[in-house]
Amino acid sequence: MNIRLRPWLLAAPLLAPLGTLWGCSSAERAPASTFHLLDGRTLTSAELQGKVLLVNFWATTCATCVKEMPLLVQTHQRFAARGFETIAVAMSYDPPEWVANFTRTRQLPFLVALDKDGTLARDWGDIKLTPTTYIVDRQGRIVKRYVGEPEPAALHQLLEQLLA
């Protein structure tokens, strides 16, 4: 073994987390998905390419999901004009009429999709816990996953970086 390489080999485990932190090219790609929107339209992940995405898996019966919805509204309104899109994916066990009522009464300004058969939850990592939120960069790579409510300042800072 070349003695000059040894210090780098020892440092590699310490430097590895930086690649993930910076969203390097080895980041996991978001799954190819078809979103069945509440209004009857369908939207594919390919159609969203080039945007920064927040994909939130939620349910109307999830107290934390309901609590975080104002943050998602605020975040969407703050960043939408800069190439940012929010998709709230209602879990398959959530009755569509409850989702429609929630969306209407809260005047959600972003896309709301129904995961009718659980395909989206399976494709995005077999999601069982809500809320689960993914941040996807313009190249379609997942750069962050939150289980539970994101901390607003950190979320907004990440989005500022991705939209710069």
From TrEMBL:
GO biological process, one term: cytochrome complex assembly
Thioredoxin domain location: 24-164
Cross-referenced InterPro entries: Redoxin (IPR013740), Thioredoxin-like_sf (IPR036249), Thioredoxin_CS (IPR017937), Thioredoxin_domain (IPR013766), Thioredoxin_ResA/DsbE_sf (IPR050553)
PROSITE patterns according to UniProt: THIOREDOXIN_1, THIOREDOXIN_2
Domain of life: Bacteria
Keywords: Cytochrome c-type biogenesis, Redox-active center, Signal
Pfam annotation, one family: Redoxin
Signal sequence region: 1-22
Annotated protein name in UniProt: Thiol-disulfide oxidoreductase ResA
Organism lineage string: Bacteria, Pseudomonadati, Pseudomonadota, Betaproteobacteria, Burkholderiales
Gene Ontology molecular function, alphabetical: disulfide oxidoreductase activity
Compartment list: Cell envelope
GO cellular component: cell envelope
